[in-house]
Amino acid sequence: MFQLASITHRVTCMQVAVAGTNSKDIKAMLKSRCDIPACLAVGRILADRAREADVYTTAYTPRDSDKFEGKVRAVVQSLIESGIDVNVYLD
């Protein structure tokens, strides 16, 4: 099992930045690929890749079945701590 996160441009539907625990640069530094520290690492790498693509603001809208807790919350929190402005829209 691995964690994957991406930032997608809403208008063009193109992925701007992608990070996952199955990539070589993250896999080597993790004990486990599916725990909270792994999600924090994914958030940091995703933030770095977003900044490289000149993306500094993003929005997170969960699907109906998603809950904003645990691993999802860890990735979003890591993005915020890494300097990406994340607008979270919860119903």
Mean pLDDT: 91
Helix content: 25-40%
The SSE string, one letter per element, is EEHHEHE
Distance between the termini: 29 Å
CATH architecture: 2-Layer Sandwich
Describe the largest sheet.
2 strands, antiparallel
Structural class: alpha+beta
Number of spatially distinct domains: 1
Q: What is the third-level CATH name, the topology? A: Nucleotidyltransferase, domain 5
Kindly state the number of beta strands. 4
Strand ordering within the main sheet:
1-2
Strand content: 15-25%
Q: Compute the gyration radius: what is it?
A: 13 Å
In CATH, what is the homologous superfamily? Ribosomal protein S11/S14
Q: Runs with pLDDT <50, length 5+?
A: none
Outline of the structure:
It comes from Cuscuta campestris. By secondary structure, this protein is an alpha+beta fold.
